[in-house]
Design goal:
Number of helices: 5
CATH topology: Four Helix Bundle (Hemerythrin (Met), subunit A)
Number of domains: 1
CATH class: Mainly Alpha
CATH architecture: Up-down Bundle
Number of strands: 0
Shape: globular
Radius of gyration: 14 Å
Amino acid sequence: MNDEERLTYVRYRLDRAASTLKEARTLFESEQMFGAVNRIYYTMFYAVSALAFSRGFSTSSHSQLRGYFNREFVKTGVIPTNLGQSYGVAFDSRKKGDYDDLVEFEKDQVQGMLVEAEQFLKVVGALIV
């Protein structure tokens, strides 16, 4: 893959993160908490995948991508620890919401996750541009 193709992919993933964040807001505003949590996680996932790909790292595994992100950006202090933790909470919450039974998400909790996802996208996006 050449540099132009890589840049196209990175831009696509960042655009996808931004549009997914809009979906999360819409779902939250219509009180669809499970959908909002799912889209919050994917906002972060697309942003991290863009960042990783911009640095030459690619994987289809969500866990591998999280490990790479934590090792290369959180533990080194490039990304604040609280944002690394937010990504982990979103990952765990999305899995619970998608696969576990009798899970509920409180509106205040999801609202906080939404705010963190907005901040996450800004910080991660700034590392790419």
